[in-house]
Amino acid sequence: MNTGLAPAVFSVDQIRKDFPLLAGEINGKPLVYLDNAATAQKPESVIRRMDRYYRQENANVHRGIHTLSQNATTAYESTRSQVREFLNAREEEELIFTSGTTEGINLVAATFARQMLKPGDEILISAMEHHSNIVPWQMALEEKGGRLRVIPMNDRGELILEGLDQLLTGKTRLVAVSHMSNTLGTINPVKEIIRQAHDRGIPVLVDAAQSVPHLPVDVQELDCDFLVFSGHKVFGPTGIGILYGKKELLDSLPPYHGGGDMIKTVTFEKTTYNDLPFRLEAGTPNIAAGIGLGEAIAYLNRLDRAAALKHEQELLAEATEKMTEIPGLRLIGTAAHKGSVISFVMASAHPADIGMILDQEGIAVRTGHHCTQPVMKQFNIPATARASFAFYNTTEEVDRLVRALRKINDLFG
Predict the structure, then answer these.
(1) Distance, CA of 333 to CA of 184 (rounded, Å)
(2) Residue 16: helix, strand or coil by DSSP?
């Protein structure tokens, strides 16, 4: 019987048995799932743990004295403890449950940014940000009369940091930057960006949605002020995520939403708010997803993550080498330091056609602008096809992808 437990020794064949969907077929062919940057597959242990909650433990958390509520609260809050260890945060109060990366960024934009911004102030982001790390800052800046500034990048998809000291000015109130690009795969030197920002007293938010599934992330080592990630990209459920913030900063934030659990007392005349983390977590949370996130982290902790990362990098290198040999195929994003993401265009076929034909071959990739339209504009393209690898992908799947792309070239060329 499959236990959904990662093996002590890294074995791709054994690991794949933990993920039930990977054994499926699409259009009569074995599935090759290469859309991990959009969402990762879930191990059996996560699926079973959520099912167990609904079947045996279903109750609301934090406010009940009966046994089911106490058990649910213990299970839900244990995830916060696991995340603290996973990110090496100092305290559990520094971890806020959200619905995902997007809500985490919006929470900081709606509270921290809006309360400190004044007319003429600036927020600095990078040229490769996901829309969710652009639009919330634009909304806050528009309201306050500030402006967005951008760290440029070169044609390899690497940030140009030589002029960072000139972009960090007396008007800069926050830097918000992705750790790893969802489109280009670039792993950014966020520790250096944080150091330079802190030298000027500027706080930094790190979008770690793409990096946390692959890289060890230590918030104390990075010394970031805020960090966000999503559960569904770390092999956990959708609808759950984490906002990390240094306690002194989170303590300064006003409530994001009003309602149950974020209060101490309520009268018609005045409300007093709860302590962290609950002050920023109004209402009934996504309890099953929170518990499932804890199980996903437990699964990752059972992996040899260094071996998993090495395997992903080998897949990236092999796919890059073989795909560059295909006539008319152009890689978008060739940074020296990359995660396991390959975006590409083909002279012979539109990305949408590439995606549809690959689907007929049982291969799932992402096509479009990947919520990074400014990146597409810089490379003067409307869209790309994107293959993104996880530790459960195989060299055989790389070969199937390459064969299918050659077939597309033959079909359209």
Answers:
(1) 5
(2) helix
- Across the range 202-217, mean pLDDT stands at 98
Residue 15 neighbours by CB under 8 Å, 6+ apart = 6, 7, 303, 391, 392
Is residue 94 in some structural domain? yes
Scan for tokens 């060890």, then name that residue.
Answer: 216
| Whether the Cβ atoms of residue 247 and residue 226 lie closer than 8 Å to each other | no
371: annotated active-site residue: yes
Model's pTM, two decimal places? 0.96
Q: Are residues 296 and 308 in the same domain?
A: no
Residues 94 and 238 in one domain: yes
What is the secondary structure of 345-371 as a DSSP string? EETTB-HHHHHHHHHHTTEE-EEE-TT
- How far is CA 254 from each of CA 97, 110, 204, 283, 368, rounded to the nearest angstrom? 16, 9, 19, 16, 37
Q: What are phi and psi of 83, to 5 degrees?
A: -65, -35
Least reliable range by pLDDT among 104-108, 110-114, 121-125, 352-356: 110-114
Residue 124 backbone dihedrals phi, psi, to 5 degrees: -110, 125
pLDDT grade for 28, boundaries at 50, 70 and 90: very high
Instruction: Tell whether 224 and 239 lie within a shared domain.
Output: yes
Residue-number span of the structural domain to which 276 is assigned? 49-301
Find the catalytic residue in 371, 394, 399, 409: 371
Answer yes or no: do 262 and 184 share one domain. Answer: yes
Contact (Cβ atoms closer than 8 angstroms) between residue 279 and residue 258: no
212 pLDDT above the threshold of 70: yes
- Please confirm whether the linkage preceding 277 is cis (ω < 30° from 0): yes
CATH number of the domain within which 236 lies: 3.40.640.10
